[in-house]
Amino acid sequence: MTPTPRTPGRPQVAVEDFEELARRAPEAIRLELIGGEVRVKPMPDGNHDEIIMWLLMQCMQQRPDLALYPERGLKVEAYRKGRARTDGALAPRKHFAGQGEWADPDGVLMTVEITSHDFDTERRDRIEKPDGYAAAGIPVFLLVDRDRWEVTVHTEPAKGKYCHVATHSFGARVEIPAPVGIVLETEELKEFAD
What we know:
The protein contains three helices and 13 strands, in the order H-E-E-H-E-E-E-E-E-E-H-E-E-E-E-E. By secondary structure, it is of the alpha+beta class. It is globular and about 45 Å long.
C-alpha cells in the first residue's frame, strides 16, 4: 500500500475505515494508525518474543495484581483518533475484559515497545509512539531498544509529551516509578539484542 499524501492535521483515513481495514488484513500484517497515517507493524522475531516473556515474568513476580497484555490494541492520541498495537500494555488484571480489539487507554499504567530491525523504527518507536501514548495520558512508556542496547523509561505525560525520559544501558538496574513500581535487572537483555 502506497501512502496517500495528506494535509497536515488531517488523517489519511477515517478511524472507522482504518478499523475495518485492520480487521480484514491478512494475519501476517498488523496495522496501526499513528499520527493520522496507516503503518504496518513488523511481525516480531524470536528475540522480540523472549524480551516480552522476560518482562512479563518480571511484572508477574513484582506486581501480581497487574498483567502485561501482549499485542494489545489501544486508542491513542488526542481525541482517540489513533490506533496503536502495543508490544505490551500493563494494566490491572481483567482490565480489558469486555473491550474490543481497540481498547480505551484509561487505566493502562504502562505501554511497552521493543524495537524491530526495520527502516521505520526511528520514527515509529522513538518518536510517534511515545507522543501517542503521552497524549493518551498513559503514565509510563518503556522502550526496549535492541539497536542501541538501551532501556528508556518515559514518565510524566503532559501536553502530548513525556516530561521525564531516563535512558539506561542493557545491564543496568532500571527503576520503573509509580504507578508501576517495579525494578528491572536488565543484564539478560544483552542475550536478545540482535
